[in-house]
C-alpha cells in the first residue's frame, strides 16, 4: 500500500505520516528532508543556493548519509533554503527515482511532502492533503522550536511559514496543491490523536473503494 500525504509547512503531515506508517506497518519517507539535504550540501560546499550547476551537482550526489543529521537539517533557515532549491526542476527530477523506488518497495510506504499525490505517486492507494490555518501552524512550530531550546519569535515563524507557502504554491514545477482525488484534512481544530483517527477513517474509505 502507498499512502501519499501533501500539505503546507508545519501542517502536521509528518506527524500523521509517522503514525500511519506505524499503524499500517509501512515505511515512511519525509521527502522534505531530501530538499533540506540538497540545500545543506550546497551550504557546506560554500556554493550559492541560486547557482543552477551547483544545485544539480548537490542533488545528483545526494547520499543516505546526507539525511542522517536531522537536527541540522531542521535547523534555522533550512526550510527556507530547501524551498529555494526545491523550485528548481532539475533538482526535483533528480529526486524522483529515489522517492518512487522507496514507495514501491514492499510492503509499501507513507510519503509526505508537497507533490507526492500529484507527481511522485499519482497512483497511490490513498491520498491526503493535510492543512491548518497558518497561525495555528506557526503556533505549533514555535512551541516545538522553543521546547528544543531554539531562539525565535512567533512572528518570525509565521513569516517563514507564509513565505514558504507562497513560494511552494507559486513555483512553476510541481507546485503545492491538493490533488483532485485527495481527501482534505484540516487539523486546525484537531489534536494529534483526533487528526490521526480522521486520517485512518479517510484511508479506510479510500482503500475500501478500490
Ligand atoms: N493536530 C495537531 N495538534 C497539535 N500539534 C500538532 C498537531 N499536528 C502536529 N502538531 C505539532 O506541530 C508541529 C509540526 O508538525 P509536523 O512536523 O508533523 O508538520 P509537517 O507538516 O511535517 O512540517 P514540515 O513541513 O516542516 O515538515 C510539531 O511540533 C507537531 O508535534
Ligand atoms: N515533496 C516535497 C517536499 C518538500 N519540498 C520543499 O522542501 C521544503 C522543506 O520541506 P518540509 O516538508 O521539510 O518543510 C518545502 O518548503 C518545499 O519547498 C518540496 O518541494 N517537495
TrEMBL record:
Taxonomic superkingdom: Bacteria
Keyword terms: ATP-binding, Cytoplasm, Kinase, Nucleotide-binding, Transferase
Residues involved in ATP binding: 7-15
Gene3D superfamilies tied to this protein: P-loop containing nucleotide triphosphate hydrolases
Annotated GO biological process: pyrimidine nucleotide metabolic process
Location of the Cytidylate kinase domain: 3-198
GO cellular component: cytoplasm
InterPro entries, per the entry: Cytidylate_kin, Cytidylate_kinase_dom, P-loop_NTPase
Pfam families: Cytidylate_kin
Primary localisation category: cytoplasm
Protein family membership: Belongs to the cytidylate kinase family. Type 1 subfamily.
HAMAP family, sorted: Cytidyl_kinase_type1
Protein name: Cytidylate kinase
Natural source organism: Tepidamorphus gemmatus
Gene from which the chain derives: cmk
